[in-house]
Write a structure and sequence with these properties.
By secondary structure, the protein is mainly α. Helices cover 67% and strands 6% of the residues. It folds into two domains: 2-41 and 189-379, no CATH class; 44-185, D-Maltodextrin-Binding Protein, domain 2. It has a four-stranded mixed β-sheet, with helices on both faces. Residues 118-384 form the ABC transmembrane type-2 domain.
Amino acid sequence: MGKIIAICLFELKRTFKNPSAYLLMFAMPLIFTFLFGSLFGGNADQTIQMGIVDEDETELSKQLITQIKKNELITYHISTESEGAELLKQQEIQGIFTIKKGLADRLIQQQKPEITFQHLPSSTVAPIVKQMLNDAVLTMSLQISSAQTGSQYSGENWNDLYQKLAIGAEDQRVLTKVSSSDDASVNVLNRMSYSSAGFSIMFVMMMILSVTGVFIEARNMGIWSRLFTTPVTKFQVMFGYFLSFFTIGWIQFFLLMVMSSVLFDVKWGNPIGLFILISSLLLAVVGLALAIAAFAKTAEQQNAIGTLIIVSTCMLGGVYWPTSITPGFMQTMANFVPQSWAIKGFTELNAGGGAVADILTPVLILLCFAVVFFTVGLSRVRYE
């Protein structure tokens, strides 16, 4: 046990002696939290302001507007073309959709309707919002096509069939919603709290990726070959390294929680639940970093591949923005990255006031990620 602790302490000292480590561990996540948390302000359901101009003014165009307004994370302003242009110019909205005349006719003829989208160059959510509109148009188009096909066989008016399909789809959505008689119990994270949790996850992953580069350095420089000539086992060496990575991650996450609480008044929730959730997350992160290191040949290659994987999965998993504003297929894909489940756990503990029992699913899934990553990584570790 003494040798394991000695290896762990050596890595801790080596990491914290590097001044640049503090920039990655603390300065960057706090800066990103402040920037993204202050970008829109308020709660996450008030972040995006968009405008809509309806030039078609038909029943179908009104139904399309009703459909896209169901996403509570986006506030839509119905206006004329001139009013919308002025709102966009004053940057009171981030973008504006214009439903061109003839939308209903084109949908009925199973043609692509003409809808233009103007947005601010600085808007980071414009592609996501545009995709949401495209999904709504596609859904409506499929419903109309199905109604027309059904009308040919039943003899019933296609419009009546379409209304039934639309109402049926709406009823299905209502059945999937979780209702609450107490508004305070609805699980919606404050934007600053959301950003703090998300970017703490992201930069802890970055830091652990950085320190696991020691595996590649030790292998390439022949350090392990010399180390194993001493009375120390591979298990002791590996466990010492894993313990150091896990400890570094916990120190970083704990201090980020303290600093975000002081600087941004972030409430993190149940301490025991936090300990279990963060420990599960760190196991998954250390396993992922080990798996990446096992496939890389140089530290530079590991850093490049790892950064690409971490940033892309953080975007997919809801670190930068809530997954609820992304298209359905991206929400499904988000279930296959650990960041998504960590965010769900923090949301339960923070906004939901949850306890340990409420985060069992995220914790178990994070542990499954850890098992998979460690299995892949350890099976490919080369000591020479």
